[in-house]
Amino acid sequence: MAIERTFSILKPDVTARNLTGAVNARIEAAGLRIVAQRRVRMTRAQAETFYAVHKGRGFFEELVAMMSSAPVVVQVLEGEGAIAKYREVMGATDPAKAAPGTIRKDFARSVGENSVHGSDAPGTAAIEVAQFFAGNDIVG
Ligand code: ATP
Ligand code: MG
Fold first, then answer.
1. Where are the beta strands (DSSP E) in the chain?
2. Whose CA is nearest to atom 7 of ligand 1?
3. Which of these, 116, 119, 94, lies nearest to 103 by C-alpha position?
């Protein structure tokens, strides 16, 4: 399988509980390399742009408010089949439905405060990476 890059966010519920290192340990244990990483406080506008695909859904307001409520850690992860691999390590969107040993099963608070984001396809990964990182910020 090809080496890919995916975009990751450690969400506000992770930074609030000082779990950045614990989540990064899960990422690295899965064989994914953190090739770029920055802690940022997203503006409301940045969160709206990032989750524009969900505009109009019932949870959009709650999602944008949550993502801009406290610092997040934005990352680029690299590895074989990184997009699908990270989605597997994250677990299902709803932690109640997430498999044992996944980040969301072990750390997420709820379907909204679900600890991590990971890109769902190569096209979205490229767009999401470009929203937060310039090419020379990524060192593989
Ligand atoms: P992400 O895009 O963050 O990686 P995902 O692809 O598993 O998560 P999506 O369906 O894309 O899930 O939803 C995006 C995010 O919106 C979820 O991660 C969660 O934070 C929030 N969300 C989704 N469904 C709900 C809901 N029913 N109530 C509250 N928040 C929700
Ligand atoms: Mg998604």
1. 3-10, 33-40, 72-80, 116-118
2. 93
3. 116
The predicted structure's pLDDT at residue 1: 78
Q: Mind listing the pLDDT tens digit for each residue in 22-73?
A: 999 999 999 999 999 999 999 999 999 999 999 999 999 999 999 999 999 9
Q: Is residue 98 over pLDDT 90? A: yes
Catalytic residues: 117
Which 8-state DSSP code applies to residue 99?
Answer: P
**What's the sign of the alpha-carbon dihedral 55, 117, 119, 139?**
positive
DSSP states of 100-136 as a string?
TTSHHHHH--SSSS-SEEE-SSHHHHHHHHHHH--GG
Local structure of residue 69 (DSSP, 8 states): S
What is the amino acid identity at position 4?
E
Please, which pLDDT band fits residue 114 given cuts at 50, 70 and 90?
Answer: very high
With beta carbons less than 8 A apart as the criterion, state whether 14 and 116 touch: yes
pTM equals: 0.97
118 lines ligand 1 (CB under 6 A): yes
